[in-house]
Amino acid sequence: MSDYTQMWSALGLDLAAHDALLSVLGGAYQDVFLSQKNRPEGMKYFDFVMSEVHGLRIKELMDAKAQGRIVVGSYCVFVPEELILAVDGVSVGLCAGAEFNFEGAEEVIPRNLCPLIKSAFGFKRGLVCPYVEASDIVVGENTCDGKKKAYEVLGPMAKDLYIIDLPQMKHGTGKTLLKEEYGRFITKLEEKSGRKVTAENLKKSIAIVNAKRNAIKRLSELRRADPAPISGLDALLVNQVFFYDDPVRFTASVNALCDEVEERVRKGEGVFPKGTPRLVVSGCPMAVPNWKVPFIVETSGAVIVGEESCVGERGTQWLTEVEGATLPEMLDAVTERYLKIDCAVFTPNPTRVDHVRDMSGRYSAGGVLHYSLQFCQPYLVESGPAEAALENSGIPVLRLETDYSQEDIGQLKTRIEAFLERIHQV
Amino acid sequence: MRAAGLDIGSRTVKLAVIQGGETVLTRKGLTSHDPLEAARALVNGTEYDVIVATGYGRHLLKEHLDCAVISEIKAFALGATFVHPSARAILDIGGQDTKAISLNEEGEMSKFEMNDKCAAGTGRFLEIMAQALGYTLEEFSRAALSAERFEKINSMCTVFAESEVVSLTAKGALRPEVALGIHRAIVSRSTTLLRRIAPVGEVFFAGGVALNGCVAALLEEDLRRPVFVPPDPQGVGALGAALYAHGSAR
Predict the structure, then answer these.
(1) Which residues contact A204 (CB under 8 A, 6 or more apart)?
(2) CA A285 to the chain's CA centroid
(3) Exposed/middle/buried for residue B231 (C-beta within 10 Å: 0-12, 13-18, 19+)
(4) SS (H, E, C) A74-96
(5) pLDDT at A426 (0 to 100)
C-alpha cells in the first residue's frame, strides 16, 4: 500500500485516530471476509477496493478535483447519482457504518439517535472520514426526523451542506415536490461545478447508473441458485462498494464476477453445501463496515440470499426508464424512479412488504430477518405489521433490533440459531 | 441409552440425564467466572452415551466436549413439552435474559422473543433489588406476598431502579410494599412480552425466577391464564437438551 499520509494530512484528518480506525477495519475485514471459504476469484477486486477505500480511491477523488470536477458526498439512496454524473461530478457515499467516536457525537446530538446518524457525526467530528473531508457538497435529505434535525447540527461543521426535501406520501403532490427538489438540486450542482445539466449528458449518466444497477440485478438473479454461489457477506460487500467506486469500473467488475458466478451455478458449485438454510434480510441499511448480523448468520449454518435494504434491492432494483428525449422528460423519469423507493419514511408503504414476500419466494428463502437499527423509528414501527403480514403468508420472520456495538453478539447468535431451528424443525 | 443435557446459563449450570424416558439424574452448580470448569465439575463422574449443550455457554462447551449444541429456546420448548404437554406458551426468566416462546399444537416452538442487551427485569435484577432492600431472595418474595399495597417502580434498568428503591425507602416507604412494586414491575414486563408472542393457552413458567412464588402468583393474576410451574423450573433447558440428545442418537 502506498503512503497516503500527506494526502490524509492535507485533508485535515486526525492521523493517529485514522490509523487506529484503519487497523481495526483491516483486522475485521480479515476475520469476516478473507477467512471465508470458496470465495469467487472475482471478489479479489472488491478486496482490493476495500483495502484502498481510504487510499487509492481518495487519491482518485483528489485527482478528479484537480481536474476541476466536484465531489458530492451523501448518506442516502434518494440522492440521484445521475444528476451528479451529469455535471461530471463524482458521487460517493459517506461513512456511517461503524461505532467510532460516539462520545464525540453525543456531545452534540442525543444519545438515543440511531447508530447510523451517530456514526456520521462520530466520523465527522473525529476527522477520520476522508470522503466527507474531500466532498465539495455534502447532501443531506429529509428522510426520518432523526436525520432531518441532525443535519441542522451537521450544517455548521460541513463545508457546504445541501438539503433535499422529500415527500412523505407518494400521490400527486409528493411527486411534484420531489421533482421540484431534484430541479433545485440540479441548480445547486450547476452552480458548484460550473457545468450545465443537458439532455445529452443526463442521458449518458442515466445509462451509466442503469448499467451499474443492471450488473447488481444480474448478481441478485444468480443468487437464486442452490447451492448459493456467493456468500451473503460478499454480495453485501458488492452492494456496499456500489456507493464508493467509480461507476463504470464497478459495473465491469461486477459483470466479471457474474461471469464467474454464472459458471459456478452451471456446475452446481457453491460457497455452502446445497440445502443450507436460506434467509432474506429486510430493513435498515448496513453501511460499511456493518457486517455484524450477516457474519453471525453465515457462521451459524445459514446463508443470506437477498437484501431488501437501501444497501441492496431497495436501492438498486429500479432503473431510470427514459422515454422522452428532452431534459424535463428525463427529469420526470428520474423522479418517477426515485419515488418508487419503498423506504419506511413513506406512509403508507405497502410495496415494501410485497417486495419482501416476492424476494422470499424468488430466492427460495426459508425465512426473513427483519433488521432494525436501534432507535430507527420508521423501520421499528413498520417491523410489527411487516412481521404479521409475512407470517400470515407463511413466511417465518425474526425481528432483530441492534446497533453497531459488539456486546450483543451472543444474544443475537442465540436468536438466530433458534430461528434456524424453528425453520428446520427436527 | 443414557442421554445427557447440559445447560450453561449466566448464573447456574444445570445437568440432566435421562434413560428410558425417565430423568435419572439432575445436578446444579454456579456458573462462576469459569463456566467451562463449572460445566466440567458437573459432568465429572457422570455416565452418559451422548451429550448435548445449550445455554449461553454452549459454544464454549462444544469446543471442549465435541458435542452438538441447540439454542436454549429450542431446549426449553422440548423440555416444557415433555414435562407438561398442554402448555402453549413458555415464559423463561433466567439470570440475564427473559424469553417468551409460543408452542404449536405439536408442542414445537413457533415464535419467540427475548429481551435486549440489558438484564432489566431478569433474575439478576431481582437479586440486586433484594440486596438493596436487605432481603435474601426467599425473604424478598415472602415480603412481597405479605404486602397489601405496593409502591410503583417505574424503571426496569437495574441502576435506575436501585436508586428509585433507595429514594422510596428514604421517604419511609415500607419494605414489603417496595418489594411488591418490584415484583409487579417484572411481571408487567413479562406479560407484555407474552401477550405479543403467545397470546393464548396455558403458560409454562421456567427459569430460576419461577422459584419465586410471588412472581408466579402475580403472573397468573395479571394474565388470567393458567400458569404452570414445574417442580424443577431451572432444569427445563438441561432436560430439553437431554431429550434432543436422546432423539438425535436414536
Answers:
(1) A85, A86
(2) 6
(3) exposed
(4) ECCCCCCHHHHHHCCCEEEECCC
(5) 43
To 10 degrees, the CA torsion angle through B161, B167, B173, B175? 50
- The pLDDT tens digits of the residues spanning B165-197 come to 989 989 999 999 999 999 999 999 899 999 999
Q: Compute CA distances B111 → A212, A350, B95, whole Å.
A: 39, 24, 22
pTM here is: 0.93
Report how far apart, in Å, the C-alpha atoms of A194 and of each of A41, A137, A188, A190, B228 are.
42, 14, 10, 5, 75
Q: Show the domains of chain B with their CATH numbers.
A: 1-84+232-250 (3.30.420.40), 89-229 (3.30.420.40)
Percent of chain A's residues with pLDDT above 70:
99
Give the contacts of B247 (CB within 8 A, at least 6 positions apart): none
Q: In the prediction, which pLDDT does B161 show?
A: 87
Task: Count other C-beta atoms under 10 Å from residue A13's C-beta.
Answer: 23
A236's grid cell = 453485501
Contacts of B108 in chain A (CB under 8 A): 425
User: Distance from B55 to chain A by nearest Cα, in Å?
Assistant: 9
DSSP code for B52: E
Cell numbers at A145, concatenated? 426526523
| Contact residues, chain A, for B71 at CB < 8 Å | 414-415, 417-418, 421
For residue A40, whether the previous peptide bond is cis, meaning omega lies within 30 degrees of 0, is no
Torsion angles phi and psi, residue A20, rounded to 5: -60, -45
- Name the residue among B56, B74, B110 with its Cβ closest to that of A410: B56
**Spatial strand order in the sheet of A161-164:** A90-93, A71-74, A137-141, A161-164
User: What would the pLDDT profile of A376-424 be if each residue is shown by its tens digit?
Assistant: 999 999 999 999 999 999 999 999 999 999 989 988 999 999 999 999 8
Is the separation of the CB atoms in A347 and A168 below 8 Å? yes
Tell me, what's the ipTM?
A: 0.88
Non-local CB neighbours of A345 within 8 Å, separated by 6+ positions:
A143, A144, A166, A168, A378
CA–CA separation, A292 vs A231, rounded Å?
14
- The string of pLDDT tens digits covering residues A328-375 is 999 999 999 999 999 999 999 999 999 999 999 999 999 999 999 999
A198 neighbors A327 (Cβ within 8 angstroms): yes
Identify the helix (H) or strand (E) that includes residue A162.
strand A161-164
| Chain-chain contact of B109 with A417 (C-beta, under 8 angstroms) | no
Mean pLDDT rounded to a whole number for chain A: 96
Which member of A399, A410, A422 has the closest CB to residue B110? A422
CA distances for A331 relative to A82, A139, A194, angstroms = 10, 19, 20
- Identify the contact set of chain B against chain A, taking CB-CB distances under 8 A: 56, 59, 70-74, 97, 108-114, 116-117, 248
C-alpha torsion sign, points A60, A66, A67, A69: positive
Helix (H, G, I), strand (E, B) or coil at B29: strand
Number of separate helices (H) and strands (E) present in chain B: 9, 10
Q: Give the whole-angstrom CA distance, residue A118 versus residue A103.
A: 9
**How high is the pLDDT of residue B66?**
80
